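Hi team,

Filling in the usual template for the complex we talked about on Friday. All components are listed, including any nucleic acid strands or ligand strings, so the model treats them as one assembly.

SUBMITTER: L.P.
PURPOSE: interface mapping
COMPONENTS: two
RESIDUES: 460
SEQUENCES:
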Amino acid sequence: MNKHHVSMSVNGDPVEILCETQQTLLDCLRDELYLTGTKEGCSTGDCGACSVTLNGRLVCSCLVLGVEANGCDVQTIEGIGSEKTLHPLQKTFLEEAALQCGVCTPGFIVAAKSLLDEKPNPSEEEIRYWLAGNLCRCTGYDKIIKAVIKAAKIMREENEQRTNRRAN
Amino acid sequence: MHQMNFAAPKTVAGAVKLLVQNKGRSKVIAGGTDLLVQLRMGKIKPGIIIDIKNIKEANQITIEKNGVRIGAAVSGAVVGEHESIKRNWPGVVEALELIGSTQIQGRASLGGNLCNGSPAADSVPALIANEAICRIAGPNGKRDIKVQNFVKSPSKTILKRDEILTSLFLPDKPNKSSSAYLRLIPRTEMDIAVVGVAASLTLDENNKCLDAIICLGAVAPKATVVKTAKKILVGKKINNDSLATLGMACEDTCDPINDTRGTIAYRTKVAGVLAKRAVQIAHTRILEKANL
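RESULT (copied from the run log):
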């Protein structure tokens, strides 16, 4: 089999892997780099469980070949928050019980973060449209939307505090 | 698993050379949102995948003298952020942005949507209504053809096995022009068109129709222009009378299939309704532009 040498940045760390042409970025993250936070759902780009950002754009990692990511910057759920300090989205997902089985959760958090990074104060409608490509079969979505709205508010306040501190 | 190579040439000539060498055993990848699904399902078994995203011409937007040129692999998200394309070809942008989710928009391209050859492709009727032109590169150089003549039948295009689609050109429109695309799906997002209708409209100084192109999607083996639309609308005001005649002409143009998404009767009826609404939206957009 032909193996390709792929170098990319994953959550800020430079990584190098060997992969076969048909291995998707999702396969590479999970099977080569053991970053199993990104989940495999449908493998056809319908469910969003494998969401990551590629050079800042939200994509389904199941619809990107590993070799296409050569030279790219990839951000996964592992780069969001830490066990000690959860990201506001992770906190509000817990507080609002926005997850049950948890398979869709990393994808939702990556997708919601990419929205809030661009648009700190989205309307509920904007959030629902942005997340239309992330499927959840447990929660019925309302709790997820509530969690995102709440996280957006926290993130705006944190931002404001940071700006004020800098001004002082 | 069969042996599959990968190449990401930096030039059109490099890509064409690979196509020639691999004699029809290659597949070109742009966004890959259709291709990777087909690969996974075993529908295609290419010997090599040729990525065109590293080719400048295929991955950039350039404003030219008489219009805008959009690289075949430019993603929907990038096109949707381009202010002048949004302003001048709103129908194309809204059709492209209807494809899939935010995640799909990060990858999916106009070139891929066209080359996939689906009768229900959202962006294709909008490209046709806006008289878009394909630029194709092959071993004998470049050639330009109308998007309208690109798809032959479902999944079949006029591309020869050693050719690639490098960009799409949208010719400038007169001042009092606009466009719109509407599609019917059973839900609000993430589905494939039951019917799609693109309208491009130009008005004269008295707000009578000067030119109109209506193109229907998902109601025939390929996107289909309503031939009688010009005759029906040109010289007339856009009102209930002219639109009613247009709606009937659209129904007559339909040649749909019965499938899980819709019956022949339903698709035909909806095509007429959407056409009337799409023309009205384009009409409103022109008048709003004039009032700015």
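MY TAKE: The helical segments of chain A are 25-32, 88-95, 105-118, 124-130, 142-167. Residues 142-167 of chain A form the longest helix (26 residues).

Thanks, L.
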